[in-house]
Write a structure and sequence with these properties.
This protein has 473 residues and is an alpha/beta fold. The protein has 3 domains: 78 residues, no CATH class; 118 residues, Aspartate Aminotransferase, domain 1, CATH 3.90.1150; 251 residues, Aspartate Aminotransferase, domain 2. Helix content is 42%, strand content 18%. The protein contains 18 helices and 18 strands. The strands form 5 sheets. Strands 5-13-12-11-10-6-9 form a 7-stranded mixed β-sheet, sandwiched between helices. Helix 6 packs parallel to helix 13. It is globular, with a radius of gyration of 28 Å. 40% of the residues are buried. The mean pLDDT is 95. Bound molecules: pyridoxal-5'-phosphate. The site of pyridoxal-5'-phosphate (PLP) has 15 residues, from helix 7 and strand 11.
Amino acid sequence: MKISEKQQNLLRMLPGIDTILEICDTEPFFENIPKSVLVRSGRSVVEDLRADILDGKHDISEQSLTEPSIMEEVKLRVKTIMAPNLIRTVNATGVVVHTNLGRSLLSDAAVENLLNIAKKYSNLEFDLSKGTRGSRNSNVEDIICELSGAEDAMVVNNNAGAVFLCLETISKGKKAIVSRGELVEIGGSFRIPDVMAKSGAILREVGTTNRTHFTDYERAIEDDTGLLLKVHTSNYSIVGFASDVSLEDLVSLGAKFRIPVMKDLGSGTFVDFSEFGLLKEPTVQETVATGADVITFSGDKLLGGPQAGIIVGRRSILDEIKQNPITRALRLDKLTLAALETTLRHYRNMDDAIASIPTLRMLTLPIHEVEAKAKALEEMLESIGDARMSVKLINTSSRAGGGSLPLLKLPSKGVGAIISGISANTIESHMRSHDPPVIGRIEEDVFIMDLRTILDDELPIIKNAFENMLKRA
Ligand SMILES: *Cc1c(COP(=O)(O)O)cnc(C)c1O
């Protein structure tokens, strides 16, 4: 590559990092900024400018390489680096278990226990009655058995880990039979066929995308069949000319041939949502009652706890799973255990669970309560008293999210905001860059906030975000 004389002159203007650090020394803004951050910011500015010059970017001029404009850029990068990356946001999307926004919120009691365990020593692996080493998971596993009716239980880092661990233990080097309609991709990089391959289980697909019959499973059974696997089609639904085999039937087939049956429930709930007028999802208890040998589900989807993977099932199989050396790599940390245990304790009393666990509370929130919140927000925004803005109450629908109840459209109430001279896209990005960010959505060119997922004390934040936007516009 040939460098022109003009480029050479521009390159010569770039300051060295020492020069930048010297200038930082003289400016009060940089006074308390750690040196590592100054070096990182200064270097990245100079490197980006060098790349731009070599690329022949037209907007690079001698003006953009003067000391004040370089230092202005260094300042911006220092600000970005010094700001925390993981920050709270307001979820105005109406998607309750929003995978991008942190899935489930913990109950107050779960947070309190987590904080207590974080700050103090605990009996994490100490048996207080015997004064000897104890098991770190036994408390939480006992509660899971009590709630689910399962013989045994185990907890790991997340449900992906749970599925992998079960497959690796039960079906490594053996065939696992799965319906073609259940070879799901959950999002991110979790695809059932890939997880199976990594675990060493050999995928034996049966049936078709829309229909799989009992005889498909039956005919596929061979000497080296190690598992019959059913996977919850969490984020989609096959409707129309479709049929699949019930877990009960698969359990009877497994019993006949002495082959274990596993169900990846995905979301997993102890609550029968149909009692609240929502769609029916088989509960964990009902799934255990089918006699399936192993069942896996998430801790932070419909269960409403921290990120975790829960395995329940037959003791003989759980014993094997617990012996697998990989469990150590998948184990839960004590903070998660503390939050999970408290979350599970709520379920001993369903009313307490619904009232205390935010995911359940939001999903079952009566429409008149959502409407009352929407009215409060509408009034609050109107009280700003800016003639450019018009707000109105709207009907909308919330979603469960997190790959659960994919067909559910939960009637909800929202507030839509229009500001003359500001497009819906601009409002959306403004709200998103507020501190804390407010994440809504756009419907028919209107910025919409669904009140189902907005917490009561977040209304003033939203008002503040609009006030800032209107002031600057
Ligand atoms: C969500 C999901 C998983 C992955 O669970 P994580 O807790 O996100 O690891 C696996 N299987 C199914 C069917 C799911 O819905």
